[in-house]
Amino acid sequence: HKAPEKVSNIIQDLVEQGQIDTDEYGMPDIRRYERARSIHTVYFIRGGKPAYIIINTLSKKEPIKSWKDGEVVRNTKKRERRMRELPNDDEE
Prior knowledge:
Number of strands: 4
Strand order of the largest sheet: 1-2-3-4
Largest sheet: 4 strands, antiparallel
Distance between the termini: 51 Å
Shape: globular
Helix content: 10-25%
Order of helices and strands: HEEEEH
C-alpha cells in the first residue's frame, strides 16, 4: 500500500529534521509500515535504534512518537560520514 500524502509529508519532515536515519542511498531507513483504517504506524531507525510514529489521518492531533520532543538524536552514521568528508591535513 502507498502511504497517504499526510503520512508521507510527516515522514519527509522527520527525515529533513534528522529524526529518521537514512541508508547509503539517502532514503529513509523505514523498516515496516502498517495501516488499520485511518491509523498508520511507521517503524524506522532513529539514531541507530528502532523507533516508531503513529499517525491518525482523520485527526488533527499531533502524531504519537516513541521518543520525547526535544530528545537529541545520536546518529553515528552521519558523524562517521562527516569525518570521512573532512579534508585531511596531509593532503595538499
